[in-house]
From TrEMBL:
Keyword tags: Membrane, Signal, Transmembrane, Transmembrane helix
Domain of life: Eukaryota
Transmembrane residue ranges: 263-283
Natural source organism: Lentinula detonsa
Protein name: Thioredoxin-like protein
Compositionally biased tracts (Polar residues): 29-56
Region annotation Disordered: where it falls in the sequence: 26-56, 314-337
Signal peptide stretch: 1-17
Lineage: Eukaryota, Fungi, Dikarya, Basidiomycota, Agaricomycotina
Low complexity composition bias: residue spans: 314-327
Amino acid sequence: MKVFWLSLISLSFTVNGQYFSEGWKPGQAVTSESSAPSPTGVPSGTGHSDNSQKSQQLSVDGILNSPWVSSLFAKAGVNISSIASTVGLSSKAAYPWDPRIPLITDTNFDDMIVDEELKPEEERNRTWLIVVSTSATNKGGGISQFVDRIFDETYNETLTAGDLPDLRWGRIDYLNVTYLTTKWGVWQAPTFVILQNRGQTLRFVKPQWLRLHEGALRTFLNTGMYNELPPWDSSFAPGGSNEYILHYMALVLMKFYNVVIKVPGWIMYIASGSLASFIIHLLHRPTKKDEVKGQAALNNTHNAVAAPVADTSVPSTAAASGSTATARQVKHRKSKK
């Protein structure tokens, strides 16, 4: 029995008794009411810290995604929104596209498509539908945005139906992928690329050829009409005799792009203007014969200007002498009379 009472007393000391106050008494100063204690096991500052982190995240997100900050960094050639999204400072996605559709780049193309682990039957049936788009930036036109919307809608419809198990979807950012677009000879976007045989068989389809509307792209895929299109079979195509030309050309352009993309835009404007002025001056530089002729013409002009001016008083003198002779003749006639 004593053990019971001792345990009950010990438990009473551990109970927090600050839930009720004794109230105000006459003559007692008025004080502010203390806040209720935090629940047991939860630190009192946890909720406040979470709210402060959220508000800080929202404030940073709003600043980085504001138009004036984006335009300021854009003038320096920096995409601050993409960088902030990559490092986790912004909740805004780096690309406006569906994240479920993989983004094909120069670095992951081999791992994702060429070296994909497939069984022999899967390898024969594997088909990639890749859209080359420019709608990720402000430079992308309305056609790219429309094609991307149709592409994403068709992707969702295909996932819901589940009737194209061997088809894979991908997207290429035309402005940031240099090697693949150069090697494939894609100089215009948007463009559909139908890829088979681990990238050795390519077919290119312009969106205007399909007359895209609701359900047109899905019908094109379901019926297998893309297999009826002739593949790219020129000497520059994969496996062709001149494939190496586009390969090395694409490597050079990719290296050049990777260097130029790090240079701020205003420096590029100055450098390009200086280079253009130098090239124009070089193209319009006169030959040695033209320089000799020009120097001779300049000397002749200088001599003509430096020559003494002819005496203009001669005609007036002759006129004066003429008038004097006429007067003498008149006097002579009068003397005869």
